[in-house]
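WARN retry 2 of 3 for item q-0093 after timeout on previous attempt; input resubmitted unchanged.
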Amino acid sequence: MAMRYCTRCVYPSASALPLTFDDRGVCSGCRVHEQKPQIDWGRREQMLRELLEEYRSKDGSNYDCIIAVSGGKDSYYQTHLIKEQFGMNPLLVTYNGNNFLEVGWRNLMRMREVFGVDHVICSPSVKTLVTLNRLGFTLMGDMNWHNHCGIYTVPVQIAVTHQIPLVFYGEHGQVDLAGMYSLYDMVELTARFVYEYVKRGFDWTDLVEAGTSDGLTPQDMLWARYPSDQEIARVGVRGIFLGNYVEWDANRHVKLVMERYGWEPSPEPFDRTYRKFSNLDDMHENGAHDYLKYIKFGYGRATDHACKDIRAGYMMREEGIEMVRKYDHVKPRDLKRWLEYVGMTEEEFDRIADTFRDPRVWRKDADGRWAKDNIWDQHPEAVAR
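OK item q-0093 returned
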């Protein structure tokens, strides 16, 4: 069966996210995006104000909330909203995976200065992170598992420890990209979501077991432990996605944070996407990590970014298809650095990566090379309405 692609954006049916198609061939991500102009965002903002007032520290004895930040454009916009627009006193919390781009680290370090806020950064040992890069790749084809884990576990741990029940994140990625839920569902963070989707069904115990020969111990993974239901209930922790309350538009938001706070995009283009303002907190996120998504599912970051820009009206579908054709297949230059980081050869990398190829996507051609169905072969001019 040939791979299906959304007739409105450029997502494939074998998405890494929960994605469905309707009888017009339009994906659930596009259909949920259609809800944005239908929502009363003024009412949603009022709901957010009421929520904030409920949790604001009445006597100033504690922080009003936590914002999970990586220093990216979304982190700046979240802090702009919570601190500058709504007058809250947030504590910024960051998980440091050790591979920030120079510009990304500079943006992160400037946050407490430009916003006048306190900032906690959790930095696991480099030895642990190198081990987790290698294990994540070998176990699940994702060297950045530790990043996905840490940005959710560390802020919630601090919320429990310091009794700060309100924790903010930006968009709900699965809602925004794939339409996993409706915008009317107003979904909040749950331990189940973190385990099943963020951590891919793996927990810190699985990594310790797999890393015993590397010397990985339970104490090395203290930061990776999501608090228990009892701990969360005792403090009343709630993880709120601001995308449920604010009409999210990354292209518009990045202009605001650049002009107002001096946020910097990447000065250099990426090998695998045309955007220069996304994922600066890890030098491999747009590169080697995203290349693995292409190996597994046949698409990459350029597809993700093109889908966002097509839906938001910044790009025609035909332009998006050209971005996919240009970028999705590229083997990035930063792979060499990652291989040196973990002590692996490129031949070993390719051999292991091939074991994660999705059989719904990939097949061997007559010459024994990997092949798949491409979107530009499927009448891109036929756009559904």
